[in-house]
Amino acid sequence: MASFKTIDDLDVNGKRVLVRADLNVPIRDGVVTDTTRIDRSAETILALASRGACVVVCSHFGRPKGKRVPEMSLKPIVEPLSRALGGVPVAFAEDCVGPAAELVVNGLAPGEVALLENLRFHDEEEKNDPAFAQKLADLCDLYVNDAFSSAHRAHASTEYIARLVPAAAGRLMQAELEALGKALDNPQRPVAAIVGGAKVSTKLELLGNLVSKVDMIIIGGGMANTFLFAQGIEIGASLCEKDMADTARAILEKAAAAKCQIVLPIDAVVASAFKEGAENHVVAIDAVPADKMILDVGPQTAQAVIAKLGECKTLVWNGPFGAFEIKPFDAATNTVAQAAAQATAGGRLLTVAGGGDTVSALANAGVEDKFSYVSTAGGAFLEWLEGKTLPGVAALL
Questions:
Q1: Residue 121 pLDDT > 80, yes or no?
Q2: CA pair distance 89, 271, nearest whole angstrom
Q3: Most buried of 29, 208, 257, 329 (most Cβ within 10 A)?
Q4: Measured between alpha carbons, how far is 232 from 168 in angstroms, rounded to an integer?
Q5: 208 catalytic, yes or no?
Q6: How far apart are CA 387 and CA 87, in angstroms?
């Protein structure tokens, strides 16, 4: 990955610094129910404030489609953001541009923090409108993007503004870019990718990019059924995209040409019903009963995957092996995740995970904080796996 500036490269003392954060957090009845994204943003804000910056935080929230929707105001974020900053007061501007924003920003002293109202109350934000970006730029001397999770969108606050004022990556963005660079751009080999999830159709671009980047792809989840079906293996009543069989075979051929090993299940946990505690048993992958569905890969597969990971130096993980939300169909995901975490702790494996249900699956396994890096970026993480250029990142390079 090309080089990018960080906040360590900026002279922020006495300067107004606009920080693009992702504070799009769950709120119920005006109360934030999960402060993870707020807490993660605190490091950058505190680092800038401690060096004498007037820190101006901006973010989107929900999809108000350019209208002022009261329940999508960022005002409920003020108190939890202040707590995340160790009690530092946070001023609030009733708009993100114009007189209301200018009044609050111009009133900041070095080391103080303000939060602007929802960027998406203006439809120009999502249109990447130059004039709107200029209004944001008028509020600052420097710009810091700390929202990798929004970096796949070319919006005024993530892309165009970086053309107007000196720009750098915040601590979160920096950590994400460095982790991703180590995982795929310049990895220690061999590199394995675990790709799970329900459908091949949603992971086509991802698989197409990975076969030329990694040494092996370990396929789990419902999408593994489609690959098995494409090879003539009966999968009973399991979730399967039968119309994607030709595509699956083409991916297998592309992987073979690229000398990328594809690892598929050798046994499975099957059941008649998709419900908690459903009666289940383990069968060989070529012995799935016609009236049963595969809801997890089996213990032999889990151990085979762990053995494969023992040969590797780097692991990229996207998607669970089974229906992890329902016990006992989280067993394989838990077993492999815990083994990967142990290898990480032992310095034998660099582990980077993210996207979709992956974060929840790793949390369920008790290892969310034991991987080298776990991205909460969702769409941006997936687009990076697909090899796409992320506008918000490109603007910083």
A1: yes
A2: 54
A3: 329
A4: 52
A5: no
A6: 41
